[in-house]
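tool_call: predict_structure(chain=1)
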Amino acid sequence: MQSEAERHADFSTIRYAQVWEDADILLEALDIQPGDTCIAIASAGDNALAMLSRNPGCVMALDLNPAQLACLELRVAAYRTLEHAEVLELIGSRPSERRAVLHQRCRRVLPSASREFWDARPAQIQDGIGNAGKFENYFRLFRTRVLPLIHSRKVIALMLEGGDAAHRQAFYVRKLDSWRWRLLFRLFFSRTVMGRMGRDPSFFRYVEGDVASRILERTRYALTELDPAENPYLQWILTGTHPTALPFALRAENFEAIRANLDRLEIRHSSLEEYLAKVDPGTVNGFNLSDIFEYMSQENTTALLEKIVRAARPGARLAYWNMLVPRRRPDSLSAHLHPLSELSARLYARDKAFFYSAFVVEEVQ
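tool_result:
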């Protein structure tokens, strides 16, 4: 069965050079146990790697886009051949003048297709592979072209220092929330600009309402209710690096656990629908579904959830994000899928990847 997204979107380039979904809340949601069999949407690979830290039996990472799999395979090679600080340099989290040298060390253990893919992109290697995607370039344009029209570097630096909740709220009101901030933010994060420069226009097929206003409100939440000093996603958007906070898979304390379990990661070029058709019933314990339903009709969402339920063990958990399109278990599957609403709400309140409108956790009955 062909994916709906596969029929409408372009999958020929790197869309996401990083995973813009918070692995901290993902891992708590899935509650992966040693030996579990899990499925993950690969994207750039960060969260599939994070899942390895929980000592699963297998994580099957799937993606329709060969370029996304090349991102994951280079990360796997980096974990195999580099030390933690060197991986941060290769990604772009830390400054580096030797990324080409680090890539050469990884290159020896890359599959041939990914070796050829990255050999053809020396400039993206030199820039840090975490900058290589269309979405990251969109944020780069915001950081370098739009943000300087709104706030000085000093104000941005003070913003990222964080502080207690009262300080963050007062700082937002006094220093950040200007008419220029609201105007340029709404223009740059509009459906039209985001579709042309950030995400594929087809990903907005089921979006209704004012996109920019929703994202502006979630940005306010991230700058006031959450602490910017602890938010790697916000820090990359505003600085292009990770000055004081790293995503789960890039933290030093998780590095060796991930490296020890790399052989438990399987990578496959496939849609989720195609892969599930081959899975034995009742064999999967956890599903990291990214925001896959964002791009599907309600009818196709229901059909895919039925396939997931068939493949899942009783007690298996599904975790996925809504950004602009509301998707949850339909009533027709109420006997098979139970929403873990309290857990979802609690984790969503902590979601450092702040631009999503919901985080959904459901359990197979």
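agent: Strands lie at 37-41, 58-63, 265-269, 284-288, 312-322, 337-339, 358-364. Proceeding to next step.
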